[in-house]
Amino acid sequence: MRRIGFLVNPIAGMGGAVGLKGTDGQFTEALRRGAIPHACDRAAGTLALLRGDGIEFVTCAGAMGEDILRSVGITEYTVLHRPGEPTTAADTRTAARAFLDAGVRLILFCGGDGTARDVYDAVGREVPVLGIPAGVKMYSAVFAVNPPAAAELVRRAGEAGCRDAEVMDIDEEAYRSGHLAARLYGYACVPSIPERIQGGKQVFEQQDEERAKDEIAAFITEIMLPETLYVIGAGSTTARILERMDLVPTLLGIDVVRDGKIVARDADERTLLSLLDDYPRAKIVVSPIGAQGFVLGRGNQQISPAVLRKAGLQNLVVVATPAKLAATPLLYVDSGDAALDREIGDSLQVISGYRIAQRKRLLHPG
């Protein structure tokens, strides 16, 4: 019987839909804004697929693990750590060290970049780790692309082998103010199956890249319709669209424009839903994360399944430069609503220049 350590950061990702761009140190504010915890649901989506696989879990009490195991009918587990309330980063580090001492073959955790960093602090490269994605950004390369893919990686960990994967340290205060300050924190050992584990984020700054952004912006602004709401996603490519309109973008947030004017800056999910009630004609413009390929579900959780359904999937517009697409062989969506993700289909048209588009394969692991 394989022994696997399992832990959950119950508050991971709560800052996403409410526009906080992270939850580190922002739990109280996230609750005040109406954030709803979802990490436990993400973890349950993985564990339900592992029920009956002959795995002996070691875990934490309560919402950090035991509650999720019991909810999906898994009874073979041992509690090695009892966290306080609310749970803290110290609980994650203590639990991971206890798992290591218990001789686990893998540590499966659910959270975001901060949780990955805490697990790495505790165990380094002494045991393989794997993340179930539940954070806001997840620029580290230790995460499965979605909960079903995490289950497949756990099930096939012995045959998959391991690779070095970047653990990234993101300055969330800088991120909230619109600046991406990321540094390499270390390399963890991660089970790897192609198309099931996400890559690290890449940034492209070549001269041709800037020209391509200008061409994309020129085309999008040319075809903008009157009396139509445009939800503009995060990133430098989408920011160029607003800059061409002589508007100041929120580089790492969601801005909304209509008839050449900003009607909401750095909008959260609640604001987007309210605007869509007032202005039913809408387009959502997003760009995938470089190399990772995520169109939805990484850094833009404000564009939630409810927002997407209200706007209409036919009104989702994806933009990316040719260089980014060349380094991104596959696209992914991980909105948190698997049925909605499948409705998007098996490919997406991506605008990559002035009146130029490419069709890219969209993968749905699991």
Automatic annotation (TrEMBL):
InterPro entries from the UniProt entry: AcoX-like, ATP-NAD_kinase_N, NAD/diacylglycerol_kinase_sf, NADK, Put_ATP-NAD_kin
Coiled-coil region(s): none
Protein's UniProt keywords contain Glycosyltransferase: no
GO-annotated molecular function: kinase activity
Gene3D superfamilies per UniProt: Probable inorganic polyphosphate/atp-NAD kinase, domain 1 (3.40.50.10330)
Lineage top rank: taxon: Archaea
Protein name: ATP-NAD kinase
Native species: Methanoculleus frigidifontis
